[in-house]
Amino acid sequence: MATLTWNPGINSYSPYVKLYVTQKSQSISGNYTILEYSLKLYRPRQVYSSASKSYNIKINGTTVKSGSTTIGGSGTKTIASGTTKVYHNSNGTKKNVAISFYQEVSITWSGVATGNASKSGTMDLTTIPRYAKITSLYANNIRGTQFKINYATDKTIDNVDYSLNGGSWQDTHNSSNYFYITGLKPGTRYTVKIRVRSKDSGLWTTSGTITITTVGLSTSNEPDFDTDGNLTINISRKSTSMYHDLYLYFWHDEQRWEEIARISNVTTKGIFNFTSTQLNEIYNGRVQSNKSNTRLKIVSKWGSNGTVQGTTYEYGELTIVNANPSIDGVTYKDTDTNVQAILNNDQLILRNKSYLEVTAGTASSQKGATLKSYKLSIGGNEYSIATSGTSETGKKIYWGPLDQSSNQTAVLTVIDSRGNKASRSFTIQVINYYEPEPVNYSADRLNNYEESSYINAELRRSVVNINGNDINELYIRYSVESGSTTSATGNNSHKNGIWQHVDLNEFIGDHPNDKSFSVYLEIKDKFSNWLTITMELPEGIALLSFLKDKIKVGVPFENLAIGKSHEGNYELEVGGNIEASKNMVVREHIYIGDNINPSKIYFRFPDGNIGFESTQNYDNCVQMYDWGGNGVIWKYQKNTNRFYITKNLTVSYGCDLQDRLNINGYIGSPVHINRTTNRTLDLINATPSSNDVWNSKYNSNLLIENYNNALSFIVGGTSNDRIAMIQVGHSAEHYAQHLGELRLNPLGGRVKCGDDVYVTGNMSAQSITDRTPFFIGDALSEIVNIKSDQKGSLDHNTLPDFVRKRIKIKKSEVTGEIAPRINFTRFEELGIKISEEDLGNEVVEEEARDIGGMISLLTVAIQQLNNITKQQQKEINRLMEVI
């Protein structure tokens, strides 16, 4: 019982309030207590008050009664009473149950304000009997096929069950503090737990697990040994009357157990001393590996000639040792007869010219193995060649040309069928060498005009140093057009590392200066073939030509020939570039080509910049025109301040566009932007004049190539979402079945996305790589819980948390609607605001499945199934062996 009292303490006859809480009854089966409560007002003297006063009573955190009452009068008044149910903990306890009350009083007593009555406290409830406690649990009388389980409890029980090795509960049909478990196997480890039922509460109490091993057959150490020693078996027997026959096996390459040896009537120790015959049986039966599984069969008998009690097995591993193959030497030589005709030393290997041949000495395998291959390693490169048999002499490995610049330490390794190796290292003498090549060359006329002609060239060849002498030599010859070949001689100039530079200034004859000629220069050294270098001897160009009615500057000679000197109407003809160190003023027209008479224009160079300026204000005040039929190529329209290009535009170094670039393409001429520098391309609007463009990149509407690291497109700003849309095929929806393909990096390279990728249709890939963390847990239990929903689809709510994923996407992507085609710029110019709802861009969340995570989950599940299968197979094997 608990009592809470409130008293204002003004004087001895002040009114006060009490709450009484008592245990009325308890339910063992329901595990709860019925509490009875009563809130009473005590008035030693008359209380004058007619006002309604509120109250409430709380027990175990719940308001069990509330309302209002009057407090006027004298004597004891029960304000409220009743019962409430309080549930106990699973063990029957219930401590510190909170109780409290509140009663509004708020009067003046003997001139002093009483305030309101409130009080809180706790009470402990009587523990309800719940479970019987198991005070002891142990096993004795352990035999080969049964043992006795003993137990004790702190209260009366009416039933006992047991579980063997985690299996289902078995009823013992008694409660006499012990029982037997029978039908067991010898030498077997068992786990046992019991549960007892309390007679008064009917509740079960489960014990912990105890482990019992039945009296078993004899065992031994694992049969591990290597072939250079013996094998000692130590027997652990359960009775001194036990004798044993031992059988030793190894796992043969033919996938079967092969018996090696046996020993009879062993008590506690047996030693296998292997004979050469037994070892050869191992060697010849295990030629593919140095390791083999072993099995020891132990047959237990009662007495030396007694009854067999049973058979046990122990498993181990044998190792074949000291079985590496051998190789007694290695040689090499250059087999290229052309090179050796010059070097006369087959131990010298000329880089990329000599043909290297390596010859192994005698190689032999050991202990039943066979030779498998040779591996030659030179300069980080390897070459392997197969072989066979148990012994071989003079195996040749043809390496071929050796691309190394200095002496190399080579290693020849012979490998046998077990993977054992033997190696020999040797040094290869390498002479660095490159074929001769030109550094620079030209065919020139005397004074750039005369008929006398020369070849001017700087050539180089490799220095091939043998015993301090350079034995190499450069050979030179030339021919003009289809004429005969003539030898030439150069002069050694300077050396640079391995290179000997050779200068050539060779007179090649007088050739008419009114046309050009093809000149062929050929070079080789002692080790190379002829290398042909093609040059052009240009026509003669006179510095100044004074003709009857004009002067020509730098015009090719052929244009000064008879019959051509008076062509054209120009007083000055320049055959090359014009450079003016100061201003060049044209008083009249500037003519470009023939028969062109544009509006007056002049060139000016303010602050080093080049500009075009017109004296007129016509619509098309500056333009370039092609009289060959292509019309206007480009024009500048001053009144609109726009520059138009109607034909191809090639930008070699970059283009900064402050406004937009509108290009109307046509078949075979794409918009081709070749970016080689870091420039900004703000807006491209590329419109083809025909849809019939296919296949080649030169038929693309928009072709953007970049030779730096990256090319970026940024669509929209920061105010709201933007969409960068690429549509392949016809823009009309009723042509949707004719949509083509969008190919990203068809020739290779990565396509990288910085955020999620949402595909509304099917996605096909040759391979998909994920970087999902590995799943840790019981995958099989998780997979069992996965179900489908009422629509026949996967119920994502049943997926494990590891593979569940929520993604944010546009509503139009979920519904399959096609996003509207909207020209944002045009609407912004008209002052129209486009909302996300208009675009179908409202963001929604969708439940999804992480495929990478699912693969990790399935991987773990398969591993679990594999472990279960192995355990089951192991138990099957054990049962078969016992049988």
TrEMBL record:
This is Uncharacterized protein. InterPro entries: DUF859, FN3_sf, Ig-like_fold. SUPFAM superfamilies: Fibronectin type III. It comes from Senegalia massiliensis.
